[in-house]
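== Sequence entry ==
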Amino acid sequence: MILPPDFRRRRLLLAALAGGVAPIPAPATPTEADLAPVYALYPQLDALVRPSLIDIHQGRYQEAEARLAQANAIIEADPALRWPCRYQVLPAYGAAVLEQGRAREALPLLRGALAAREAILAQQLPRFRLIVPRIDEGLGLELTRVEYGRQLVAMIRTPQALSSSDDLAYDQRLATSDIWTLLARALAAAGEREELARLYRERVAPMAIPAGQVAQLTAYEYRLYKIGVSLAAAGLDADARAAWRLARQANAQRLNGTMRQASPHQVSAAAGLRRQMLSASILAADDAGELDAEAPALLADLLATKGAATRYNDTMRALLEGSAPDIAVQLRALEDSIAQLPATTAEAGPFIKALAQQDWLWMAAARRMRLHSAGFAVPDGTLVDALRARLGRGAALGFMLLTPPGPRGTPPQRRYLRYCVDAGGLQLRMLGKQSAIDRLVHACRTELLGGAPASKAAAELSAQLLDGLPPALHAAREWIVDPDGALHLLPFDALPGPDGKPLLERHAIRLATSLAAAPPAAPASAEALGAAAIFADPDYGSGGAAPPAPATLRWWGGAGVGPVAPLPDTREEARAVAASLARLRIDSQVYAQDRASAAALGALRRPALLHVAAHAVLRPALESGESSNLGAEAIELMLPGRQAGLVLSRAGKADVVLAGDIARLSLQGTRLVVLSACDTANGDLAPGEAVASLRRAVELAGARSAVTALWQVPSAATTALMTAFYARLAQGESMGAALRGAKRALQAAGNPPRAWAGFQLSGEDGVLAASG
C-alpha cells in the first residue's frame, strides 16, 4: 500500500516521537534577534493549525491530523531553535490523534506540548512567555462564550437545540483548548494511572490563579472538572472527587468576581455547570460507599447550588424594582417586545440584538446596585446549621436531579437524590432513574385526577421516594419539602405512609422554593399593611367552557381573550373568606364581577392578604400558533412570568394577567396569598432550579406565604375547602395546620384526593393576625 506523502511523513514523525519528544535545550535566554526566525514561522503554522481546529470541531480528524503533521514537520526540521512552536501545534495534533482512539500515539505529542509550555515559562522567552497566560485567558473567554452560546442555542428552536446547560461540560469546541485536559484524557485512555495522578496532584491542583483574573479562573474551573472525569474513568475516585470539589470552589469564586457584571443567562449557565460538578461528586461518593461520610459537606454544597440561578434572578428583579426603577421600566418594555420576535434561525438577528440589549441593562443594574452573590458563596456548615434552626421541631425532605458525567453525545441518565435534615441529623440517599420516577408521577396524577380513592402509582412512588427515611422524619409533625423535576407536580400528602394511610394524616406538608433561602423578611417599613383583597366571580361575559388561548402574549391592558365559563360558586367563597377575616379583625375589600380586574389587582398596595378565586391558564395556552417561537425554558429565562396567568375581567370580557405582571405587584410583607384557581402551582420545570408557576410569581412579588393548586379542582370542593381553611384560621390555627385540617375534613366526608390533595402551602407558616 502506497501512502500519500502527508501520511508517510506523519507515520515517520509519530514513530520518532514514540519514545518522547526530543529534549528541549536550556541555553541562556535567547534574545529577540535569536527568535526572530521562529516568530516568522507563526503565520505559516497558523495557516495550518486554524483550519485543523475547525476540522476537529466538525469531526474530520484524519484531515486535521494530516495538516498538523505538516506543521509539526516544519518545527522538527530545526527542533533546537523551533521547539517553542510545539506549544502552538502539538495540542491540536495530539487532540486529532486522541479523538481517533489512539491514546498511546497521542501521549508523546501532548507531553511534548506540555514540556514546551513549561520551558517557555522557565526560560522567560520573550513574547513566548506572554502566550501561556493569554492561551489560558483565551480559553476562559471561549468557555464563557460557549456557556452563553449554549443558552442562546437553547432559546432558538432548531433541530439541534439543547435543552440544558448541563451539556456545557462536553462541548466539542473545547476539546483542543487545554493541554492539561487533553493529556489527562490520553493518560486515562492509555491506562497510565500513576502519571495521571501525578499530573493532577503535583501540577494542576496547586495552580495559583492571580486575583481578579476571571477568565483564567474559568479555564481552571473547567480544567478541574474535566480532569476529574478522566481521573474517575481511570479509577482514581478520591482524586476525582477532590478535583470536582476544587472546581466547585473555583466556580463560586468566579461568580463572586463577576456577579456585579453578569446577566441572568451567564449566571444560569454557570449554575448549570456547578450542578453538573456536584452531581459527579455525589454519584462518585455513592459508588465508593462514602456518601454517608461526606454527607455534611455535600449537603452544604447542595443547598448553595440548588436553585442558585433562581435566587440570583429573584434577588435582582426585586432590587431592580426598588433600587433601579428606571432600568426596571426599560427591561419590562424590552421583554415585552422580545416576546413578539420570532426566535428562529432564519430571523435571529433582531432576537440576538434584543438579547444583547437585555444583558446590557442587567449588567448596568448589577454594577449600580453592587449586588453580592451570597447564593454562590463557597459553602460551609453554616448553611446546614441555619436550616436546622429554621426547622425547629419540623424536618426537611428534599430532592435533586443528578446528571452523571458521561461520553460526549450520550444522553444523560439522570437520577434523583433524596436529602433529609432534622434537628438531630441528616441523610443523603440515591433513588431511581428520573425517567422511571417521572412516569410514576404522571401515572399518579392521572389516577388521582380520575377520581380514584387511592393510587397504585402513589404507593409505588412512596416506596421509591420515602423508603428508609430516618425515624425523626416519621416523628416530625411538619415536613418542609423541596422538590425537583416532576416532583414539583406531586401531591406529597396523598402518598401513603408506612401505615398505608395518606401522609396527610401524619404530617403537615409545606413546600419550599429553596431550602438555602431564608423566609421572606417582614417589611422594613413600620407602615401597617392594607386591607385584605378578595377577588371572586370575575365578569367573563357569556359562553365558553374553558379559557381559550389569548391572541398574543401581552402585559397589562391587552385585548380580552373571549368567553370563558363563569364562576358563581366563588361568590359564597368570597363571603366566607371575608367573614373569617372579620373574626380576626382584618378588614377586607371584595372585588367581584367587573371590579375583579387586572387594573384593580395592579393598584393594590401591600394588602394584608390576597385571595383570588378565578380561572388560571398555562402555556401553551398562552400563545397562539405564531405569537412566539421560543422554547419553554427560554421564555422563563429571558421573559420570566410568561408561563402562566390568572383570568380576570376587563370591560365585561376575560383578560389574562400574566405571572410576570403578578410578580411586580406590591405584595411586600403580605402575609398570605391564596390563588383559588386551577393549576396555579404548575408550570414548566427547570431541573435544579424551580417551576415557572403563579406561586413563584407571588413569592417574587414579596408575599410571605401562598396557597396554590396542582390541578383543576371541582368548584364546589374548592369552596368547601377554602371555607373550612379560613374558618380554622379564624380560630387561631396556623396556616399549615388550618390547610391540613381543611383537607382532612374533606377526606373524612368521603371526598377523593382529587378534591383536596392539589392545594399546597408554600413559604412561611404561622397564624394570621390583624396588622397595625
Residues 382-511 form one domain. The first strand starts at residue 395 and ends at 402.
